[in-house]
Amino acid sequence: MDLDTARQELEEFIPHVKNISDSSIKKMAGRDLTRFKEFKKQGIAVKFGRFTQKENKQIQKNVEEFLSLTGIDSAEKLLFTSRYPEDKDTIHRLKTEHHFCEKISQGIPRPWRLIYYRARKMFDPNNYKGRYTKEEKEKLKKYQALHGNDWKKISELMSRSNLSVAMKYSEIKSAVNYGPWTKEETQKLMNAVKDVLRRKLQTENASSLCSVEQSDTDLWIEREKLYQSLPWTEIETKVGSRYWRQCKQKWNSILTSKLTRGQQLYRGTNGLQAKINLIKRLYETKAEDASEVNWDELSNAIGDVPRAYVQSKFYRLKVSFVPLWKRKTFSEIIEYLYEKKLPELEEKL
């Protein structure tokens, strides 16, 4: 299949396909297109975003079955073959002979690349090592000075995942302010977010480039765009004195305040009512996993707020009121809140 035809056929399943590189299109045409068409026949849409608990279990099943089929003795060897140079050739041969790409993505209506990355995250033993010690932080600084932002190399030296070392370095690379935000910091954050949103708008709508460039102060975009994920490490660099997670939390706080015109939605009687509404609405969704919840629609259970605000309030509810919540499934957490906590909150209200 030629490149233009592949891109055209993939567009039916992936709306942002025009932004994908030619080399990625070629890979997707081979790995994904037939699968996508098969899912379409079954009435199943291609999915993006957070993986569900059901999908995670399917990935685990696929990996375990492939290990059993090939005799490869661990998921780490299968998914992080470069860590085992002496077995590399044998593993690559077995993966080719037994159609690794096809097997690993079986039953999951997502692009193969996303399934593969999710599997690597799930089975990487370096992903779950807890907090960094002082010694590890010093090592991380030293390795970054030696190897720059080669996070793959640094992750191998530290036995941590690529993402973990990159995000941790982002937090510790400079003197970070942990106190209240100053007016200057807040303005830097607002300017950084505005720059990113302006660039996104220019990329997505080239025809409006001139009008966007001419406007230094007024940037009109759809509200949904404000809720989308932003390049926080880039924004962190522009702010200078805060790390990316602080920038993200502050932006969500600013956005919530502006959308609600400064109302205190989660205090006193309003706060009780918001908790009650949120628990009821979550229970009504009958969702088995957090990824099945439309958080944008749910946001009006509290008020005119961003999805991140609602998600943070749900997190506080489960942490505060659900015993052993880490051992419970999403639906079990909702049922507990509905059956045990909701009557208490209604009585208190």
From TrEMBL:
SMART domains: SANT. Transmembrane segments: none annotated. GO terms for cellular component: nucleolus. SUPFAM superfamilies: Homeodomain-like. It comes from the Eukaryota. InterPro entries: Homeodomain-like_sf, Myb_dom, SANT/Myb, TTF1-like. One of its GO terms (biological process) is termination of RNA polymerase I transcription. One of its GO terms (molecular function) is chromatin binding. Residues 124-172, 173-255 form the Myb-like domain. Residues 124-161 form the HTH myb-type domain. This is TTF1 factor. It comes from Promerops cafer (Cape sugarbird).
